[in-house]
Design brief:
2 helices; 14% strand; flat
Length: 73
């Protein structure tokens, strides 16, 4: 499982993703098959329509995470 957490997410706080990571580790006994990616200067969702040079679009990270999970062995 890969979780991508936006640091500027307007719907949830960044430490919620770490809470989820700790919960997975507690339940499974390991976090070997869990990754947490934090994205700085990103908001929740694809906000490319904002045309704001202060906010980064997270779609590249999402695509990379999908590639990473498909390569995971």
């Amino acid at each position: 499982m890969i979780v991508i957490q936006a640091m500027m997410d307007e719907f949830t706080c960044p430490w919620c993703a770490d809470w989820y990571r700790q919960t997975v580790k507690k339940e499974k006994g390991s976090e070997e098959d869990f990754r947490l990616y934090y994205m700085d200067r990103c908001m929740h969702g694809n906000v490319s329509w904002l045309e704001n040079n202060m906010i980064t679009n997270y779609m590249g990270a999402l695509h990379q995470a999908l590639l990473d999970i498909s390569d995971w062995q």
